[in-house]
Amino acid sequence: MLPLFTICDRWDVGGVSMALHAQTGQPTIFVYDGYPGGAGIAELAFADAERHARATLELIAACPCDDGCPSCVQSPKCGNWNEYLDKRAAVTLLGLLTSSRQTPSSFPG
After folding, report:
1. Residues sharing a CB contact under 8 Å with residue 70, sequence separation 6 or more, in sequence order
2. Neighbours of 19 (CB within 10 A)
3. Nearest-5° angle of CA 27, CA 56, CA 81?
4. How does pLDDT run across 50-69, given as a tens digit for each residue?
5. pTM of the entire structure?
């Protein structure tokens, strides 16, 4: 979703998430610029993170698939190779991040 807000290519940014990161001691998501030295895209993402999370929640919740697909949760740039994907967990997490009342039972699939 980020390229829609920052007018960049999906290959201009990267990301990786971990259920438990050794340095933070908690679940952690990293979004980073895809170019050495950066291009400022990660900073733009951080500056408007809630709006991006809300748009992502709306996209995932509206997708008619059952478990996640390339249209909603899979990405060719996934730092975890699209393993450990969980559409319902994504909806729950994004709902918490955005204070949304959206729940896994309120979307098709």
Report:
1. none
2. 9
3. 55
4. 898 999 999 999 999 988 88
5. 0.75
| Burial profile 50-74: b = 16 or more Cβ within 10 angstroms, e = fewer | eebbbbbbbebbebeeeebeeebbe
Which residues of the chain fall below pLDDT 50?
103-105, 107-109
Mapped onto helix, strand or coil, the DSSP state of residue 63 is coil
Rg of the chain (C-alpha set): 14
Residue showing tokens 């500056």: 47
According to DSSP, the residues that pair with 32 across neighbouring strands are 14
Q: In sequence order, which residues have a C-beta less than 8 Å from that of residue 23 and are 6 or more positions away?
A: none
Under a CB-based contact definition with an 8 Å cutoff, are residues 15 and 77 in contact? yes
